[in-house]
Write a structure and sequence with these properties.
7 helices, mainly alpha, globular, 171 residues
């Protein structure tokens, strides 16, 4: 069990270190835990993302849910530790970099990492959507939610809760 928890920590840590926002860690998590190790499936990963998006706090909190799905409360603790480690490392890095943080090369490097992470996230979300959008009404609901997110000032939480309510009524 200890070996599994260490491997889970390493996997989640890699995913968090490869992202500059919570959901851009999805490609690594999905590849390692769903496709390679089969510790969770797409429905559990979708549930973890939904729980993480509908709770207050950082966007990466879904990693705690992923840890829970893999190894219960111990996995959740590992997920929380993996989520916090990059922030602590950034503080150390900022201390070491000092005034070079404003260097245009450093800023450009960060921009390119964000763009690359966005492309990976888009691909992963597409793959997750394939397993979640199994009926025509789910596709309609996803399109409606996307339009509401892009065109209205409606809070994300209301869109998520509304979609959940529709899902309960349709099922």
């Amino acid at each position: 069990m200890i070996a599994k928890l260490l491997l889970l920590y390493w996997t989640l840590l890699q995913s968090m270190l490869s992202s500059f926002s919570g959901l851009s860690s999805l490609p690594v998590i999905r590849h390692e835990l769903v496709e390679e190790r089969h510790w969770i499936d797409d429905s559990q990963l979708n549930a973890a993302v939904m729980i993480g998006r509908s709770t207050p706090g950082p966007m990466g909190v879904y990693v705690v849910c992923v840890g829970y799905f893999v190894a219960g409360y111990s996995g959740a603790a590992v997920g929380m530790l993996a989520m916090a480690t990059p922030a602590l490392l950034i503080l150390l890095l900022l201390r070491l970099l000092g005034n070079r943080v404003d260097d245009p090369r450093v800023k450009n490097a960060v921009r390119y990492v964000i763009v690359g992470g966005s492309a990976l996230s888009a691909f992963t979300l597409f793959k997750m959507g394939e397993s979640a959008l199994t009926a025509w009404w789910w596709v309609v609901l996803a399109i409606l939610a996307a339009v509401l997110l892009l065109r209205s000032r409606l809070s994300t939480i209301w869109i998520v809760l509304g979609a959940g309510a529709v899902g309960v009524m349709v099922k």
